[in-house]
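HUMAN: Now follow token order:
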Amino acid sequence: MHWTVYLSGEIHTNWRDEIAAACEGLPVSFTAPVTDHAASDDCGVAILGEEPNKFWHDHKGAKLNAIRTRNAIEAADLVVVRFGEKYRQWNAAFDAGYAHALGKPLIVMHNAEHAHALKEVDAAANATCETPRQAAQMLQYLMTGALPES
């Protein structure tokens, strides 16, 4: 069985690469949002034209990115959502809620410091963890049934 896993959330670190490397050899494909922050923010105006009002600038990009995100979450067999340390990721919370509403298996990843703030998101998740390594080990276990080597 081949799985498609959507890796949502924080875009300022290489956590996606860590998970992909740890899952090498498993029957899995990873999808993600656009992780180039500037491209994600400016896609709407780059394609549809400049906007003097920041609201409409952001609106154009958000609508365009939503097409990619919704399709990727709907096509995924499992969704991993990472909340980073530095920024509030409202988009990650939305993605977690959307995945949950669709009944997609959901792994939520964040550091212990954010446990209280994300308690409702964690309650909707099938599993929670703190590190990309733990998320990768969860995926390995789910796909193979084998526990990680110590």
